[in-house]
């Protein structure tokens, strides 16, 4: 039985969660009218931030198809086939009927608005609504760009550059704020797991395979990552998206990196 509260009550045991959203064969006109007959496809570039979209779908229990692609050495970019899906050429990308959408935050907003029935997000009336919105956007709006800037300046041997020092300051600020928030609450938007956690984990885990850094100074972030790693949705997403990859939840900097 598909565990999806957005479905009307009734006999849906025939739904294949990996292919059907509604029993489209029974209601073809309704599905066409509501544009519900199409299925969601997550185009996943392995070892990338598209892992968070798989994870979001798993947490929501919504049906989706998964298409995975390997990065191409030596620069580990997305393969040509992936780059052709959306002009941005970057992961993640989803397809939903005629929609082809890139950009993590846009994809999160699209899936949450269209398919979550309010789950994993907080309403404006919630006392932690502002925290929710802030952390939902902070990962890709602040933390991750600073981490990537630091990573590339180190790879280029420019640790002492102004750019590197600036990025390091920004990274420290973000980690300190995150650690302080997680000292008070179990999750970034209070004691409830939300999409804000889901979007924030990649920068502190899999991204460390590209630019290793330690989290030893941030015990509350580490405890949060350990809590996350116990979630069935996270385990399923990682096993499906990156089979064989041990999630990087350790406090120390990972030794085996990709670059
Ligand atoms: N702001 C974009 C960034 C996307 C991005 O840079 N993705 C990386 C993967 S983590 C990528 O596609 N890299 C492969 C490439 O550039 O070829 C988003 O959040 O979707």
Automatic annotation (TrEMBL):
Alphabetical list of Pfam families matching this protein: GST_C (PF00043), GST_N_2 (PF13409)
Q: Which GO terms describe its molecular function?
A: glutathione peroxidase activity; glutathione transferase activity
Q: Which residues form the GST C-terminal domain?
A: 125-247
Record keyword Transferase present: yes
Record has Transmembrane helix as a keyword: no
Looking at the record, the residues that make up the GST N-terminal domain are: 37-119
* GO cellular component terms, semicolon-separated: cytoplasm
- Its Enzyme Commission number(s) read 2.5.1.18
Q: Which UniProt keywords apply?
A: Transferase
Catalysis: reaction(s): RX + glutathione = an S-substituted glutathione + a halide anion + H(+)
InterPro entries linked to this entry: Glutathione-S-Trfase_C-like (IPR010987), Glutathione-S-Trfase_C_sf (IPR036282), Glutathione_S-Trfase (IPR040079), Glutathione_S-Trfase_N (IPR004045), GST_C (IPR004046), Thioredoxin-like_sf (IPR036249)
Q: Which domain of life is it from?
A: Eukaryota
Enzyme's top EC category: transferase
- Sequence similarity: Belongs to the GST superfamily.
PANTHER family per the UniProt record, alphabetical: GLUTATHIONE S-TRANSFERASE 1 (PTHR44051:SF9), GLUTATHIONE S-TRANSFERASE-RELATED (PTHR44051)
Protein name per its UniProtKB record: glutathione transferase
Species source reads Penicillium frequentans
The organism's taxonomic lineage, starting at the top = Eukaryota, Fungi, Dikarya, Ascomycota, Pezizomycotina
């Amino acid at each position: 039985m598909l565990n999806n509260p957005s479905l009307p009550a009734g006999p849906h045991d025939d739904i294949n969660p990996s292919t059907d959203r509604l029993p489209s064969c029974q209601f073809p006109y309704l599905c066409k009218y509501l544009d519900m007959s199409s299925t969601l496809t997550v185009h996943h570039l392995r070892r990338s931030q598209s892992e968070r979209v798989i994870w979001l779908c798993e947490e929501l229990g919504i049906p989706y198809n998964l298409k995975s692609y390997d990065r191409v050495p030596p620069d580990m970019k997305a393969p040509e086939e992936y780059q052709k899906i959306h002009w941005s050429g970057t992961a993640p990308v989803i397809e939903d009927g005629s929609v082809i959408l890139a950009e993590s935050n846009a994809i999160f907003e699209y899936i949450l608005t269209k398919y979550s029935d309010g789950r994993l997000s907080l309403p404006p009336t919630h006392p932690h609504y502002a925290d929710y919105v802030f952390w939902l956007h902070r990962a890709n709006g602040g933390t991750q760009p600073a981490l990537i800037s630091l990573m590339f300046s180190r790879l280029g041997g420019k640790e002492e550059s102004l750019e590197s020092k600036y990025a390091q300051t920004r990274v420290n600020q973000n980690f300190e704020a995150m650690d302080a928030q997680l000292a008070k609450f179990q999750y970034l938007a209070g004691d409830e797991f939300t999409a804000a956690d889901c979007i924030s984990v990649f920068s502190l885990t899999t991204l460390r395979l590209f630019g290793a850094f330690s989290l030893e100074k941030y015990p509350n972030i580490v405890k949060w990552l350990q809590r996350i790693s116990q979630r069935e949705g996270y385990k399923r997403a990682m096993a499906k998206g990156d089979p064989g990859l041990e999630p990087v939840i350790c406090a120390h900097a990972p030794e085996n990196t990709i670059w």
